[in-house]
Amino acid sequence: MTDQQNTAASEEETAPQFSLQRIYVRDLSFEAPKSPAIFRQQWEPSVGLDLNTRQKALEGDFHEVVLTLSVTVKNGESGEVAFIAEVQQAGIFLIKNLDDASMSHTLGAFCPNILFPYARETLDSLVTRGSFPALMLAPVNFDALYAQELQRMQAAGETPTVQ
């Protein structure tokens, strides 16, 4: 019976583990350079979205993943910048016992998928507080973006690294 307990405990220690520890806003920025004049114009927005992720190994098996969403909205044909908003949505994740490829995918796609709804809501709230119409960003397929990045790295002769 003791051997069975030791085997079960050993398997539990080597089994993959994933746990979300905390989600938080790391940085937040909003700028409306043409206000209040922009509010008197016909609203014909064009939205530019830039997104980026980065990860950092913390102590032990903890990792910080930061998803940055930067939105620039221009109005009308003149292309005047109505507002610029940016959020760095971060999370701390406990990730144990994954091989390098699984760890890279988890940090590069799975964790950003978890963070994106929080970042999207934070941006929407920020924009409406600036007195602009709601900004409803479409969902993002981080698995596809991760696959594209892997292909780019392979073509360039680079190897993905987990920091």
TrEMBL record:
It is found in: Cytoplasm. The keyword Transport applies. Its main location: cytoplasm. The keyword Protein transport applies. Keywords: Chaperone, Cytoplasm, Protein transport, Translocation, Transport. Signal peptide: none annotated. InterPro entries: SecB, SecB-like_sf. One of the proteins required for the normal export of preproteins out of the cell cytoplasm. It is a molecular chaperone that binds to a subset of precursor proteins, maintaining them in a translocation-competent state. It also specifically binds to its receptor SecA. Belongs to the SecB family. Homotetramer, a dimer of dimers. One homotetramer interacts with 1 SecA dimer. This is Protein-export protein SecB. It comes from Pseudomonas gregormendelii. The lineage of its organism: Bacteria, Pseudomonadati, Pseudomonadota, Gammaproteobacteria, Pseudomonadales.
